[in-house]
Aminopeptidase N (Rugamonas rubra), 876 residues
Amino acid sequence: PQTIFRKDYLPPSYLVDTVELGFDLDPARTIVASRVTLRHNPASKSRDIVLHGEALELVQLRLNGKTLRPGQYELSGSTLTIRKAPLAVVLEIETLTAPVKNTTLSGLYVSNGNFFTQCEAEGFRRITYFPDRPDVMAKYTVMLRADKALYPVLLSNGNLIEQGELGDGRHYAKWEDPFKKPSYLFALVAARLVCQEERYTLQSGREVLLQVWVEEGNLDKTDYAMQSLKNSIRWDEQRFGLELDLDRFMIVAVGDFNMGAMENKGLNIFNTKFVLANSRVATDIDYAGIEAVVGHEYFHNWTGNRVTCRDWFQLSLKEGLTVFRDQEFSADMIGTDSGRAVTRIDQVRTLRQAQFPEDAGPMAHPVRPDSFVEINNFYTVTIYEKGAEVVRMYQTLLGRDGFRKGMDLYFERHDGQAVECDDFRAAMADANGRDLGQFERWYSQAGTPVVRAETNYDAIARTFDITLRQHCPASAGQEHKLPFHIPVAVGLLGADGRDLALSTDAKDRQGQATVVLELTGEEQTFRFHDIAERPTPSILRDFSAPVVLEYDYTDAELLHLFSHDSDPVNRWEAGQRLAMERLLKLTTAVATGKPLALDATFIAAQRALLVDETLDPAFRELALILPSETIIAEQMEVVEPQAIHSARQFMRRTLAAALKPELLAQYHANQTPGAYSPDALSAGKRALKNLALSYLLIAPQEAELALARQQFAEAGNMTDRAAALVALIHSGAEVGEHLHSFYQDFEHEALVVDKWFAMQAAAPGTDVAAVRKLMEHPAFTLKNPNRARSLIFNFTNGNPSQFHAADGSAYEFWAEHVIKLDALNPQVAARLARSMDRWRRYTPALQAHMQRALERVAAHARLSNDVLEVVSKALA
Ligand code: HT7
Ligand code: ZN
């Protein structure tokens, strides 16, 4: 397959002013007629018009009114080229597609009998021939024609300007989008749907129409999405001064979708998972996901749509920035400092669980990649989550006001344009009079920097020095890295646990509890003055940069931070370090057959935190979750998944036994009687209560089993019901009857059936044979991405000790399903292929099995570019 390089970017030879599209919708044979006005781009030397097209049947091609015959254009691979074109061109193109056969869920497809589109990144070319690249922005008018009884609702971007009957049972709707946009933001929906709608008044006084469209029977699950949309609109007005620019904003839910949602202009299309919720079917985590994703897609209207990407190498320009915005939105919605910290800790966990491994693996790439084979493989945690960290660092360096100034300048300069990450950085720098030249390395260098700290206290001079050294491990194609510009937020704790007022060499930040040190060299020493006692340093507060911090903390220092740090992220972090040190030792002990033990100090610290009523339940829950098996594995030279699992289980079992009375007390103290509410405080209580329950069920006696059974039977919401069932499954108790009743209660709720598969897939007792058996269940299908992910991905990524079974049988299963999925949906298959990214880190025996499985996939004929890129990079 062909690799595409950022350095080869050329401006488009022709720009498009207007696009008129006509659709005669039919599942087996949809006719698409387009009329496109183009003009030569003075920035290009070429006079060739290059159109992209895939899986299309070309019926008719006319240029300035004249039909072009095959010799007058070139059709090769996925491009159609018209050489030496006039300066001004009107193209009229007619194509045929078969949406019902489109299992890729890219382009125009059918889901449960309805039509939907997904055009990002390169789906528009599966609808019609077009310069399908984000730097070609045009105004669209769309005419939809379809059978009225089957597809009563016809939607597209922008405003509905006309609708009516066509006779013979068909009807039409004409939509016009007043804003120019790249083709990846085009969308249509033709469906039998119903909507919840509301007129909403913007801060300016302008009234807009908001709609949430779902299948009949789901109208009782749209309130939270609607509320989240209204909150998003208000938040963007208040925090960034950004107003909704359309008179109508629609969200449509679809059951078959490759990702979470899509920000098509004015017509956001969502995976049902991020729309549908009521207390019966959705958990607290689902509710939080809906708020975040509704916000995310809405915020794209400015960061992505009004200002878009010049090319797909700049993807993080819109995704990193929009994730940062949705993170800030969710944090502001909670409103308290501790709630904000809880969201921040969650972000750090995601980075460590998924992004750090990606940055150290075969698919490592910079936030702005230099090359790719298949762009769909680059919708990654690096582009999204690390990209958001990079944006967050601007705010840390410039302050909230400085960041806002940078945003304002960015829109002032680039509204209506397709730009680069460098343009965003320039706006931040220019608006604040700062040189952010070195900051560019966050975009160009892959890998997770390691910052090593050393400290020195001089009691006589009353100074405390922190020396920071940075280095970044090599990644493919990037042997040597240059120093990053790293904001390191630091506080110092006195013996009483309180923050010392800091005075540094930097003149403008005196007397604060936290200062942001700017590490730009390979090594720098920062001095704090007037320090009366040897402090405990709290370094990288609020996780101020996406780095690995190395500091030789003593146990006593960590315990001090774990009990007192005013920065909740570092307080949590101290607990993670205490646990990790012990987990690594226990893993070695398991592997070498040594006896296992857990010290009383650690248990006492966990106990103190568990019962500390001054702390939010949500924070306590997070602080008591042990580092995951994946995160432990990342710390090891040679990974032994079963040893890690046993070590972690031992720690959980020991804590459960030692803290049983406290766990039971917290279980009872954190009940949330009354009507269900997904607010952060109630959700935090449920989280802590259910964590306690899961501990109590590690080695349960009849009383604990009864508690879980009672919660399962009487739960008034899905959070508690699912948590009880998971705890029962993990306890190893006989749960066939519970699984059966759960399924029966929810068999018509697809998202709950996904949960039913997911909880079984991730259970430590579920081996590959059990997964194969579950695949025979009538509700299982590979064709629906949510369903495939619920069982297969939750097994390969969420059940490490079973996926890495010594005989390699689960790797064979993986290979078989990557190949099967690839024939249906290459994007989903390539995601599954990534489960094997870190194969070289396992024991030689496991490596050999994994290599064989990877080679089996690589050798398969007719592999998509998506999967080929992933497996060949893994094997390289
Ligand atoms: N911008 C959207 C990306 C997306 C996508 C990309 C490739 C294939 C399918 C897709 N569905 C959505 C989602 C977002 O980040 O907002
Ligand atoms: Zn996005």
Observations:
- The pocket of zinc ion (ligand 2) is lined by residues 296, 300, 319, 322 (CB under 6 Å).
- The longest strand covers residues 14-24.
- Residues 609 and 620 are 7 Å apart (CA to CA).
